[in-house]
Design a protein that fits this description.
Elements (H helix, E strand, L loop, with lengths): L3 E4 L4 E4 L7 E10 L6 H19 L3 E9 L3 H10 L3 H18 L15 H13 L3 E4 L2 E4 L34 E6 L14 E3 L1 H13 L2 E8 L3 H15 L3 E8 L2 E3 L2 E2 L10 H7 L2 H9 L7 E2 L2 H25 L11 H8 L4 H20 L3 H18 L17 H23 L3 H13 L2 E6 L2 E6 L3
Parallel strand pairs: 3-4, 3-9, 9-10, 11-13
Antiparallel strand pairs: 1-2, 5-6, 6-7, 7-8, 11-12, 14-15
Helix pairs in contact: 4-5, 4-6, 5-6, 8-9, 9-11, 9-12, 10-11, 11-12, 13-14
Length: 466
């Protein structure tokens, strides 16, 4: 058994070899909490949640760090625009992110450090870089000297002379391409006291310092969206390695969620907030939609694509429900997933290929049900539950007990009572062979969005696809 991952730094799929046997350490660039999350933000956390689950299934002890950037230019700008404290905006949106992660079934990280809680570690790193000649003070700020690190831009495969020269007018920089590790205080902005004067951290320094604290000088996997490759991850590498850390052994990046071919982003006005999406769609369906494409692929958002995901998951969920009824109780997951599923997941987290195995097993289970082969149907369900558990999509998992909570658990009970009364009327019509009335009742229920199935234990209803 060898897990293989696409390593951005190597530009190829590599066999995963852990730093420490039986353990895997993962650092994921988490939320910048300047606004509530859209589904593009949550996709990254969800992709790495599936990766984490697979490593755990394969027997690894996983340490998963997902940071919170709770101070940056955007948060400060929002603070001024809304006349609110910067920390109030950050805390509100951090809670919104965690609500989104939880709603979509992401396991909590081992550690979730905030940037503002690690200024001491940042000062230590800046001191070390200044001593080694890789950083310098200027007008109360601290900059990294990019030309002092010959390996700079190896991750993004660029040439430093081809970079545009930003921040033209920033005084004190030796080279316009040098980036800020510490920013001198400006009137009205939050600031921390340091040996370099009052100021606040630069975005790139935050992650280098937190990864060093929680995972040490070297760790296994650094993750994030492809938009972070440059400049964020490139600058993280330069800081950490110039400081003396070996840093990440593998760089893994997920694709975007796009709308009309553009990256989903607040600045473009095309974001779809998680808090609104979970009112329109069951969270488990959103997880299926965002988590089942390959993590490196782009997802083009549309309501039609979500409806397709809902229909596909309904086929899986319907099979699970039918076998549970047939078995007369819960069927426990199998101890092992099918070998073909494992092979797909081992090959760079090949969720689409793994999901194909899920659907094939569901079809086999449905055939067993049609043949009244209870034993085979139960065996297929055990395999399906094992596979869905790895993907965080098992509808029988306790997490999803409240999966319909946004539609209202109490309302579900009321609807169930009313539908049962109507179904009793339909059964009475069938009993007196009044087929026209029975069919009319079924058709009216179908038109209302309910799907009626006749099972050996009697009729049952489910909510149909949108």
């Amino acid at each position: 058994m060898t897990i293989r991952l696409y390593d951005t730094s190597a530009r190829q799929i590599r066999d995963f070899s852990p730093l420490n046997d039986g353990c895997v350490s993962i650092y994921l660039c988490g939320a910048t909490v300047q606004a509530a999350p859209h589904i593009g933000h949550i996709r990254s956390g969800l992709n790495f949640d599936i990766m984490r689950r697979w490593f755990a299934y394969r027997g690894y002890d996983v340490t998963f760090v997902r940071n919170v950037t709770d101070i940056d230019d955007k948060i400060i700008k929002k603070s001024a625009e809304q006349d609110r404290p910067w920390w109030s905006i950050g805390y509100e949106n951090e809670r919104a992110f965690n609500s989104g992660y939880d709603a979509l079934g992401c396991l909590p990280p081992t550690y979730e450090p905030r940037a503002t809680g690690h200024v001491t570690e940042m000062v230590e790193m800046m001191r070390g870089l200044i001593e080694r000649g890789h950083a310098y003070e200027a007008d109360g700020s601290v900059y990294f000297d990019v030309r002092s690190w010959p390996q700079y831009l190896e991750l993004s495969n660029q040439d430093i002379d081809d970079l545009r020269q930003p921040d033209e007018g920033v005084s004190g920089k030796r080279d316009p391409r040098d980036f800020a590790m510490w920013k001198a205080v400006k009137p009205g902005e939050p600031a921390w006291e340091t040996p370099f004067g009052l100021g606040r951290p630069g975005w790139h320094l935050e992650c280098s310092a937190m990864a060093h604290k929680y995972l040490g000088r070297e760790f296994d996997i650094h993750g994030g969206g492809i938009d972070l490759i440059f400049p964020h991850h490139e600058n993280e590498i330069a800081q950490a390695k110039a400081f003396g850390d070996a840093f990440a052994r593998y760089w893994v990046h997920n694709g975007w969620v796009t709308i009309a071919g553009e990256k989903m982003a607040k600045s473009l006005g095309n974001s779809v907030l998680v808090s609104e999406m979970v009112k329109q769609w069951r969270p488990i369906v959103l997880r299926y939609y965002l988590g089942t494409p390959h993590y490196r692929s782009m997802i083009e958002y549309s309501p039609e694509a979500l409806r397709e995901a809902e229909s596909a998951f309904a086929r899986i969920e319907g099979f699970v429900q039918r076998v549970v009824e047939k078995a007369g109780g819960i069927v426990e997951p199998a101890a092992q997933v099918p070998p073909a599923f494992a092979d797909a997941m081992d090959d760079d987290m090949g969720v689409p290929q793994a999901l194909a195995i899920v659907h094939t097993t569901v079809r086999q289970g449905n055939s067993a049900l049609a043949a009244d082969d209870k034993e085979a149907a139960v065996a297929r369900l055990a395999e399906v539950r094992a596979m869905l558990g790895v993907l965080g999509l098992d509808p029988l998992d306790p997490h999803w007990d409240g999966g319909d909570s946004d539609r209202g658990d109490d309302l579900h009970g009321v609807v169930d009572t009313l539908v049962r009364l109507v179904l009793d009327q339909r059964e009475a019509a069938r009993g007196r062979k009044d087929w026209a009335t029975a069919d009319a009742i079924r058709d009216q229920l179908n038109q209302s969005g309910l799907v009626i199935e006749d099972s050996p234990s009697g009729p049952r209803w489910t909510l149909g696809p949108r």
